[in-house]
Amino acid sequence: xxxxxxxxxxxxxxxxxxxxxxxxxxxxxxxxxxxxxxxxxxxxxxxxxxxxxxxxxxxxxxxxxxxxxxxxxxxxxxxxxxxxxxxxxxxxxxxxxxxxxxxxxxxxxxxxxxxxxxxxxxxxxxxxxxxxxxxxxxxxxxxxxxxxxxxxxxxxxxxxxxxxxxxxxx
Length: 170
Description:
Layout: E1 8-15, E2 21-27, H1 33-44, E3 58-60, E4 64-67, E5 100-103, E6 115-118, E7 131-135, H2 142-147, E8 161-168
Antiparallel strand pairs: 1-2, 1-8, 2-7, 3-4, 4-6, 5-6, 5-7
């Protein structure tokens, strides 16, 4: 279970219009409070915008799945609760395993709403992307189903992967 310094968020994900499957994330509130607050608010939609109804726009087998662009849907949009982007908080956690949740960016201090979920350890991303959570052991298997939709041409997934619901685990 979680400790007092971590709170869980969830995505209910539909692949190809199929039934929703839940993935839960343990959040590293104690290490990256601003980043986790942004993700949590985008999961709940409490600011009037967020992840619900958005899609994963990029899935690469053996690497990662990227989502969170709820404004344009193609990897060029999105926004944080702090404005278009916010600064890096630091890089205390490494990309060490499958299911790590990390901020996608366009260089230093350009975090918005886009995130990625790792399928493998990604040490080359350490110090460049903030890891702010991970899929729980009980739900990390959903990564297999997402990864199976990977595009060999490094593009959109083979089937639509939609976040049909999201929020904070009660």
